[in-house]
Design a protein that fits this description.
alpha+beta; 2 domains; four-stranded antiparallel β-sheet; Immunoglobulin-like; about 240 residues; 1 helix
């Protein structure tokens, strides 16, 4: 009788071993789940950096313009025009990327439409095949490119100078305007970047103009950079 009872208990104990092993596996899976491919408990996905900024606030980023054009002498419909083929040869190239990063507030939504916006704008310029080892000025302008160099109008200004042409350093400066001066390398190539803490007003910034010299900053000549050598249309 005691032998029978002992055998019964032994068989019952052996039957429980698979169940105990399965229970241990389930418990260990819970620990591994926290370290697995998911982000946090329940396999949540990691928040996208474009959705949330480092301070926990949402940010908005938008591509405003992408230009990739080849310079040519003026003709109806030309997007990139050279007025001086020695300094800016026909067939040389220009690339311009404009992007906005901020809270998504448009310049037209700001009070009086000028200055003080939360958005910033980034401009990235690349030129290929210009005159080597040479300095150039470059600015964003208010008019579209035309047959004559002056057709592109004055520099775009976030806060407009009441006196035009603007040569007052309070208005003609690289915070209130977009300056992209550059010096080419031995192959005639160059890159330039500019960041401003405002967003362009819709439809008022229409071209990039390449000038003969680096931009001056002194009183009475601020913003001037010599002759207009080339122009490329930019749709913003």
């Amino acid at each position: 009788m005691d032998v029978t009872r002992h055998l019964t208990r032994t068989i019952a104990g052996l039957a429980l071993l698979p169940l105990l092993a399965a229970g241990c596996d389930d418990g260990g899976g819970g620990d591994d789940g926290g370290r697995g491919g998911g982000y946090g408990a329940g396999g949540e996905s990691s928040p996208s950096p474009t959705q949330e900024g480092g301070d926990g606030t949402e940010s908005a980023q938008a591509n405003l313009a992408d230009v990739d054009e080849e310079f040519e002498p003026y003709s109806d419909g030309a997007s990139a025009v050279t007025y001086d083929e020695d300094a800016v040869p026909a067939g040389s190239r220009v690339e311009l990327a404009v992007s906005s990063e901020g809270t998504g507030e448009d310049a037209d939504d700001r009070e009086d439409g000028d200055g003080g916006g939360a958005d910033g704008t980034e401009f990235s310029l690349r030129v290929v095949g210009l005159m080597p080892d040479r300095g150039y000025g470059a600015h964003m302008h208010t008019g579209a490119c035309g047959e004559e160099p002056d057709d592109s109008g004055p520099h775009y200004q976030d806060e407009k100078d009441p006196e035009q042409p603007s040569t007052d350093p309070r208005y003609a400066n690289d915070d209130n305007e977009v300056w992209l001066d550059f010096t080419t390398d031995s192959d005639g190539n160059a890159d330039s970047d500019a960041d401003v803490d405002w967003a362009p007003r819709s439809g008022e910034m229409k071209s990039l103009v390449i000038h003969d010299e680096h931009t001056r900053t002194g009183e009475g000549e601020a913003g001037s950079a010599g002759d207009r050598l080339a122009c490329v249309n930019v749709k913003l």
